Amino acid sequence: METVFQLAYIAAAVLFILGLKMLGKPATARRGNMVSAVGMLVAVVATLLQSGIDYALVAAGLVVGGGIGAFWARRVQMTQMPETVALFNGAGGGASLLVGWAEYLGNPTQDVVTAVATVLAVLIGGVTLSGSVLAWAKLSERVSGRPVLFAGQQVVNAGLLLAALVCGVLYVVNPEGGYAFLLAAIALALALGVLAVLPIGGADMPIVISLLNSYSGVAASAAGFVIGNTVLIVSGSLVGASGLILTQIMCKAMNRSLANVLFSGFGSATKAGAQAIEGEVKPISPEDAYYILEAASSVVFVPGYGMAVAQAQHAVKELADLLEANGAEVRYAIHPVAGRMPGHMNVLLAEANVPYEQLVEPGDVNPTMESVDVALVIGANDVVNPAAKEDRSSPLYGMPIIEVDRARTTFVLKRSMNPGFSGVENPLFYKPNTRMIFGDAKAVLGQLVAEFKEAAAA
Amino acid sequence: MTILLLLFVFVLAVFLGLELIQKVPSQLHTPLMSGTNAISGIVIVGAIATTAVGGTFSNVLAFLAIVLAAMNVFGGYLVTDRMLGMFKSGKREG
Prior knowledge:
The complex is a heterodimer of chains A (458) and B (94). Chain A is an alpha/beta fold and 458 residues long. Chain A has helices at 2-23, 29-48, 55-75, 81-106, 112-139, 153-173, 179-197, 205-227, 230-253, 258-263, 286-295, 305-310, 313-325, 344-351, 362-365, 387-390, 441-457, and strands at 298-303, 329-333, 359-360, 374-378, 409-414, 434-438. In chain A, strands 3-2-1-4-5-6 form a six-stranded parallel β-sheet. In chain A, helix 5 (112-139) runs antiparallel to helix 8 and helix 8 runs antiparallel to helix 9 (230-253). The longest helix of chain A is centred in the N-terminal third of the chain and has 28 residues, at 112-139. Chain A starts with a helix and ends with a helix. In chain A, 57% of the residues are buried. Mean pLDDT of chain A is 88; it is low at 267-274. Chain B has a domain at 31-86. Helix content of chain B is 73%, strand content 0%. Chain B contains four helices and no strands. In chain B, helix 2 (29-39) packs antiparallel against helix 4 and helix 3 packs antiparallel against helix 4 (56-86). The longest helix of chain B is centred in the C-terminal third of the chain and has 31 residues, at 56-86. Chain B starts with a helix and ends in an 8-residue tail after the last helix. At the A-B interface, helix 1, helix 2, helix 3, helix 4 and helix 8 of A face helix 1, helix 2, helix 3 and helix 4 of B.
């Protein structure tokens, strides 16, 4: 019978791998997700057939947890996707922690390997749980998204980490009598998760979420070592590795190292000493902006977090349709770190039925920027900040940007002149070819749409 | 199964994971992340197996683990599917 379980687990692992591969291509992504879900079903059914399972307990847990998850997944709005992913991720980490804990209670005389795996499962699972919950709270603005810094923060964090590791080692030395150390390690891990995410600002959230996603995989893998379960080890490490790659891609897109993201509290202080900005801000009314858009034959939209906040994706699509009907070529330039999670903008635009062929990456749109008549920046800031190219003293210097400052005309839709999340001033707003359209993104886009419709009716 | 064999499996799976995700277009980053997130819900298998341990407090922990893992699995897959369902190609519409 054991052979049958193992074969089922191999089948599940193959389905996960195939599913992941298919998730990487737009045409097969949805089927890939289903293939991976079937893999999950196979693994769960195989586990249920093993002896000694408490079915009533399992059924109750599945109904409660599955119900909450399914309800949430259906109800949540696309703009709330980052915090939702964070929360589900935290749940996974929490489950790994609990598995490690419960297994210890069932069998406190662990060998060294199991003891090490138990410690890793509760430590990484604990950090994932509390870190994800804080990320969720920050992203859903239940607490301030600003980085929280205090004196000696890194010393405190390092001390906590060290204390957690010491507790872990003391536990491994003598698991049977080391229950107190295991509990202490759990408490320290939970505290560490909170303190590690505190200094990280909203704009760096894509990286943190992706890293926590990686952690939850590693925690699951560690739990797999605790109970000697192959499918847990394989799937957990797949997730851990892929999460790490995604994290690396994000960091590259911001031209920053992971260490810099995690420890610097980027954007906490408004960095003075940057070059003085020359020029003046030139506002423009939506009516005047309409005339320029009406004459444009190539338009690039550059969405950012502001579009998500204003829920303006449908208004963007409506304006784009009118521009296309007017004969303009429309594209959407998406920066890899725009928004609050990797690919955030793509999801929102997809919700508004924008075909994905029109979504282009900075590297593809930048060489053609001179021939773009109008670049429409909607709630994006740091990802279009020319200081990243021009100003060596800027904290953004070196980050690849979407170079809208080279377009013939750039409209910036913005609420006010406040700097972006990084707290860095944006010289783009002062460039001679830049016009600011102040107001709520959705309202302004609505006015532009109305202008087009009026003109068509007349 | 010996621990070395498990470690062997672990290392190979890490390399496979690194290879699988290398060249994914940025438009799929969110679904990919939420899809892998759903896979990390595989810890549900561990949670279910833990109910065999017995003991009241241990059962409470196992129950909570199943609840959390099930949230991760059901929520993760459904939300990923919802997102991917919205990705449309302009070509299909002609």
